[in-house]
Amino acid sequence: MRVTQSMLSNNMLRNLSGSYNKMATLQEQINSGKKITRPSQDPVVAIKGIGYRTDLNKVEQYQRNLGEVNNWLDSSDDALDKVGIALHRVQELVIQASSDTLTPDDRTKIEKEITQIKEQVRDMGNTKVGDKYIFSGTNTNSPLHDGTNFLTPGAAVGVNKDVNIEVYDGVEITVNTKGLDMFQNIDDMIVGLEADLKDPNKSGKDFDKYLTMKNDNEKAVLAARADIGARQNRVEMMENRLGAQEVIVTKQLSNNEDIDYEKVITEMITQESIHQAALSVGAKIIQSTLVDFIR
To answer: What span, in angstroms and rounded, lies between the C-alpha atoms of 254 and 169?
Structure first.
């Protein structure tokens, strides 16, 4: 086959164009720090990157969900801690009321404080996280006690149901504490104590039963707090798991997309040398033109 000057020129231009493209790609990688900037450059890398980013987005969402779980559990524990303090104060007042040496005025003072404790406990039963009541089951838009009555399972079907939040694929944590029975029992005890304090016919021993009732209610509160503590421990384990998952997926994403700067810079230098050599050789291969002779 006869090799013409035109063939040599076309081959040189084609090779130089390819060399420019390679240098442009390497330069783009160095500037962006990424192996590709368009899916068309490497569809496999692009598809894997989409998958890794989807996994990262899920991890971030689950971490936000865990933040909401912590809000519910911490708020529930804090509310029940205050209920426990209120019950302790009730015990002190009952012990005082059980003395027959108290005057009617003394009992009136105790009764007024008991009334305030009742309101405080009801307020704790209506604790909210954001705009959601956390002791009302799935009826999160309704207070447990509306100022007159407690929610009833008949009217509020979800009052004894769990509120669950997903914290991992297929993993949910119950964030609420069923408060109806617990708060209602405490309220009934305090209302009864309040009424007996108003009754002048009640003697000191008539108040002894409230110490037993107080102990039973306190056990219920402590059991609820123990359950919350167990769930808080599980949340901590899930946080560790998600943190580890985030690190793993981030590393996989980096390995898939990020360049090795040392390697790419070396390739860039090598390609520049090849390009300069191609220019030098090409200048010798291409014949002089008539213009050159005229000069």
So the answer is: 23
